[in-house]
Amino acid sequence: MGNLVKYFNRALEWVCISIFVFIVIVGTYQIVTRYVFNAPSTKSEELLTYSFTWLALLSASLVFGKRDHMAMTFLYDKLNDNSRRIVSIINEVFVLVFALIVLIYGGISITGLTSTQVTASLGIPMSYVYSVVPISGFITAFYSIVNIMEIVKGGKV
């Protein structure tokens, strides 16, 4: 399971890096067309907005999966190892429930509702834009299950 998670992390890192590079290129193009040629591109503005949304949700899933997210641990640090393990499992279960209900179920619902709408400039279906919500939900749920298994086995708390 460790190798699978490691490869999955690496693949998701490359996806996030690729989206970020894409954002930098499109952002530079937008700046040049707006200030050098005095002809701003509305398509690049929309593309940047949707790309940033994808980057934010996928990166959040990645950071959660690596357990590198920010946390206030002043009470958690005062607990003994067994209590930390219990609190960590409860935390992971809450995240799993959130991923299943809000991100996956809600994401699939909103993706279906927006399948007939198209974006203003690009003309692509909005369901493509919103599809990142259930995708990040599945990724977060996967990581949450892996984290619970690791905590139960006695791994990193």
The main β sheet shows up as: none
Q: Given the C-alpha coordinates, what overall shape results? A: elongated
Helix content: over 70%
Rg of Cα set: 19 Å
- Outline the low-pLDDT stretches: none
Relative strand content: under 5%
Instruction: Sketch the topology as an H/E string, one letter per element.
Output: HHHHH
Number of strands: 0
Sheet/helix structural class: mainly alpha
Measured between the Cα atoms of the first and last residue, the distance is 17 Å
Mean pLDDT level: 93
What is the number of helices?
A: 5
Task: Characterise the protein shown here.
With 157 residues, the chain is mainly alpha-helical. The protein has helices at residues 2-36, 42-66, 81-113, 126-130, 132-152. Helix 1 packs antiparallel against helix 2 and helix 2 (42-66) runs parallel beside helix 5. The longest helix has 35 residues, at 2-36. The radius of gyration is 19 Å and the shape is elongated. It starts with a helix and ends in a 5-residue tail after the last helix.
